[in-house]
Structure formats: structure tokens, C-alpha cells
Amino acid sequence: MNTPPLPSGAEHADGYSVRLGALAPLTRPGWAESGRHLLAGLDLAVREVNGAGGIDGRPLELVVRDTAADPERAAAAVDELAALGVAAVVGEYHSVVARAAATRADALGVPFLCSSAVLDTLTEEPTEWVARLAPAQSHGWRIYADFLLGAGRRRIAVATQPSVYWASGTRILRDHLAAHGGSVLELDANALTPDALCDALVDHGATALLLLVGHPEPAVPIVRAVRGDRRLGKIMIGAPAGQPELTEWLTALGGEGAGIPFLRYLPERLGPLGERVRRELGERLGEAPSFVAFEGWDTGAVMAAVLRSHGTDRSAVAAAWPGVAVEGTRGPIRFSRTPGVGLRQWAWAPVQVVDRDPADPDRFRVLHAG
């Protein structure tokens, strides 16, 4: 006899379900499109878990909270979710927000599986409570720096704003490029107008400008200014944090937003599982899923495996990270201790440098893989 699928979401609020807290930026100033993709992946995975009988016959329920890219809001959400009795907290896209969530989860003894944020130091001290799927920033951004070097770009300018995440990225790039004869010039995107920033690029003789800034402001005006400045016709614009992946980017900039390399965490070719998930996510989203949607599905798959094998006790969930062995959409997922990273880390998800094809901005080109 076939068992009817068990639903996910808010249908189960009676204490019978296994609750899983989920954090995502769903409103501005967060990158809401990334939050939507993250939740689409999570929800698809949870629905599949429930369709297969749930967690020992109990439905898995996502309890979603919008962080809106606010660290304090994220920390408060972890408090609230802990009080609601969640077995664990998952998700988040923004690194500074994820750091606040991870710090609070560690303090409360709540397992936290970070889906998409990359900042190396999500917690000040090593912890057994936190694990992560996304590659550490130092790993991915060094691959991006290697791409710049391979493209002959050594005089790099970064348009940046005050943030632990942007400062960390700048430091990684500077250290890696300096070891290979490159240099990094920091330009304060809050202090300089887009036109003044263009003047500084000319004066410096920069061969690449990296956008370490928010989206859409000031990233979109900066791109328009650089694209419209005849003096900068040969400069490469880059965005390692991934802004050009968003459909909003293409809507705002059209063809001007193409040819801007960024990092994404996908293999060159998806296997059968990845292809199936890609198709189903595309149907749910109404557009091609970003790598963040795959991170969401993989998060759900990992948590289902842990909860089925170790139960819902929080200490048991955290103790399960070292033994995780799950087939994800982008390869086999296992967690380990990685030097310089104080949490359990999947080392590593596949890393690509891609851009939107200037001849067809809806198409992505793989420029480099690490």
C-alpha cells in the first residue's frame, strides 16, 4: 500500500512534527532572490523526505524566519527557534548574518548547518555545534585570484564598503595576488561617486575592478559608469560574491551586466541526482535554479540523514557531523576539520568562475574551475 506524502511547512504545529528552523534573507536589504532560492531547495528536500515517510514516521517541518540581512535579527531568530524546540537551525546566505546565527547557536547548544555563507570565522572559537556546506571564503576567493592571474590581470582595484565580509575578501585577494606579483587598491564605494571611482581606476592603471559592494546599490550604478567610460574599455569587472547570478542583476543591467566573472559552487556537469533536482527546482522557481538552491536541497538531505540516524536530540545531532556521508546534488558530502576554519566543513564543494555570455546574457560560461 502506498503511503500518501506527508506535507512540509506550517501544516504541522502540534508538536508531532520534527521541527527544523530555517534562516534566509527574504526582504531588503537582504539578497532576497538568494533567500528565495535557498528556501526553494530546502522545501523541495523536506517534501521529498516527508513523501518517503518523514523522520521515523514523523513529518519534518520547516519553521522559517526572515533575517533581512540583519545580524541582530538572526540572533534573535535563533533564540526564538530554540524556544520552539527545533532539532537544529539551517540556512542563511549572508556571511555576517550567518556569523551572528552561528555564535548564538553555539552559545545555546543548538546545532546549526550553514548552507551558503562563506566567511571563514563563523565563530570566534572552534565549535562542535556548527557545520557548513559552502566553501570557506579563503578557498573560493583564492581560486578567483588564480583566475585573475591566469587572465593576465595583476593590477586589481576593489570597490568596497565597510563589512567584515568585504574586508576578509580584500585581505585574501591581496595576500594571494601579492605572492604572484599582483596588487590590490581599495576604493571606498561610500565615499566615491561612480564617476570619481572611474577616475581613480584610470589614475591607478587598474586592469580589473572587483565589486565588493551591495546589490543593487551601489553595484549597478558602478557597472553603468565603468561600462560608459571610454577610458576603461579594456578593464575587467568582476564580482566574486556572485551578484551577477541573480535574475535581478540581468533585469537591472541587461547586456551591461554580462561578461562579469563571479564565483558559484556547481560542478561542470551534474550527475543524475543533480539533474533531477535541477529540473524540479526550475519548475518550482519558474527559472533556472542558482547554486544557492542546490545548497538548500543538500542542506535538507544532510539534515534528514542525521535525524534518521541519530534522532532529534540536539547533542546527538551535533555529534553526528563527523560521520555524515550523504550523496548531494553536487557530489558526496562529508564534514571534516579544516585548518583555519573552526567548524565542521565540507571540503570542498565544487568551485567555478563563470560569467553571463555577452552574446546571450541568459547563458552562463564556465571560465575557470578549482
Could you explain how this protein is built, in words?
The chain is an alpha/beta fold and 370 residues long. 39% of the residues lie in helices and 21% in strands. It contains 11 helices and 16 strands. A hairpin with a 2-residue loop joins strand 15 and strand 16 (360-369). The longest helix has 20 residues, at 32-51. The model is unreliable at 1-14 (pLDDT under 50).
Helix content: 25-40%
Query: Which structural class should the secondary elements be placed in?
Result: alpha/beta
**What ranges have pLDDT less than 50 throughout 5 or more consecutive residues?**
1-14
Task: Give a quick account of the main beta sheet: strands, pairing sense, barrel closure.
Answer: 7 strands, mixed
Shape: globular
> What number is the mean pLDDT?
95
Number of strands: 16
Q: If strands are numbered along the chain, what order do they take across the biggest sheet?
A: 2-1-3-4-5-14-13
| Element string (H = helix, E = strand) | EHEHEHEEHEHEHEHEHEHHHEEEEEE
- Give the distance, in angstroms, between the N- and C-terminal Cα atoms: 47 Å
Strand coverage percent = 15-25%
Number of DSSP helical runs: 11
